[in-house]
Design brief:
The chain is α/β, with parallel strands linked by helices. 45% of the residues lie in helices and 18% in strands. Helix 1 packs across helix 10 (249-264), helix 4 (99-120) crosses helix 5 (134-143) and helix 6 runs antiparallel to helix 8.
């Protein structure tokens, strides 16, 4: 076992997703069974008691990998020595709130957190933003993080990726590990494009496998356009309608998988993550955009050279246009 613990900071740690994350991280599900962790739980003053209660429960679990837990409402204290940051807490959209208002409210959260990361985090820090609008919140945090390289900031689209795989499991009666090559392009929003044009199930192209089950290629394309794509993109709203609140365990699981694969590597398979664009696939440089990605254990890299047909390109470009609009709205507020 490594002797030096890894400091992991979770913001919004008193909330439901934070609560679902803490025990799995402490058990080694995220960083592995040989890496002790030191948890730093950041909350707003109103949420401190909830986070303190979670810290007591963590203590009672007596996890061998858990060195210590600290609860604070001060961002600099929370990010001191941080190597892994999960930015979960965000301002949700309230009744009558315009998107510009939402972006402004989150700028007041993620800007100061980015500054604290720049001032206090470890030199190897990597950050994943979970709180929505996740892509643009990651952009906000990275812009204020001083000398921390922008590509250390990512946003979570692994949940969308997992949702897409889950729909294919149901449609094709296969296991998750028998599906490869799914990709989420664009924004973590209803405009995202879940793409199966390069995906296989048991080695068979997904479109061909769907065509065999649904009675032809046209039927397969109709199912993808009319059922698969909108259901994946709007799955969060579906869960709210059924459950009465937003995704919790599945979001926490996706965040853990995102960090695990970034740190340990993806092997020959790819997954999806929102990363800082370097101009790949025509996406404006600097946007935090979801792509198919791989990791060798030192950060995600975009899978390049994939063909996008006209249908796929149009969907992808519509989502990128939304990201550009969000970036421009934040710039107009003077916070970028």
């Amino acid at each position: 076992m490594a002797t030096s613990p890894t400091t992991v900071t979770i913001t919004g740690a008193g909330g439901q997703i934070g609560y679902a994350l803490l025990f799995r991280i402490a058990a080694g599900d995220m960083l592995g069974p040989d890496r002790p962790v030191r948890l730093r739980l950041l909350e707003i003053p109103q949420g401190l008691r909830s986070a303190e209660g979670a810290a007591l429960e963590l203590q009672d679990c007596a996890f061998p990998l858990l060195e210590d837990v600290e609860v604070t409402d001060d961002p600099r204290t929370a990010f001191e020595g941080c190597s892994v940051g999960l930015l979960v807490g965000a301002r949700p959209r309230g009744p009558g709130m315009e998107r510009a208002d939402l972006l402004a409210a989150n700028a007041g959260i993620f800007g100061p957190q980015g500054e604290a990361i720049g001032e206090a985090a470890a030199s190897d820090v990597r950050v994943v933003v979970v709180g929505n609008p996740a892509n643009t919140n990651a952009l906000l945090a990275s812009a204020r993080a001083g000398a921390v390289p922008a590509d250390r900031f990512t946003a979570l689209t692994r949940l969308d990726h997992n949702r897409a795989v889950a729909q294919l499991i149901e449609a094709l009666d296969v296991r998750a590990d028998e599906i490869e090559g799914v990709a989420i392009w664009g924004n973590h929003s209803a405009t995202q494009f879940p793409d199966v044009s390069h995906a296989t199930a048991r080695g068979v192209p997904v479109v061909d496998a769907l065509a065999e089950r649904l009675g032809g290629r046209d039927a397969a394309i109709d199912w993808l356009d009319e059922s698969f794509v909108p259901r994946v993109a709007k799955r969060g709203a579906e869960i709210i309608e059924v459950r009465g609140s937003s995704s919790v365990a599945s979001a926490a699981n996706a965040a853990i998988e995102h960090v695990r694969d970034e740190q340990a590597g993806t092997g020959p398979r790819w997954t999806s993550a929102a990363v800082v664009s370097r101009g790949e696939y025509g996406v404006p440089e600097g946007l935090v955009c979801s792509f198919p990605v791989t990791s060798g254990g030192s950060g995600y890299r975009v899978v390049e050279g994939l063909d996008l047909d006209d249908r796929s390109r149009a969907r992808f470009e519509a989502s990128v246009a939304e990201l550009v609009a969000e970036r421009d709205a934040v710039r107009a507020l003077g916070v970028l």
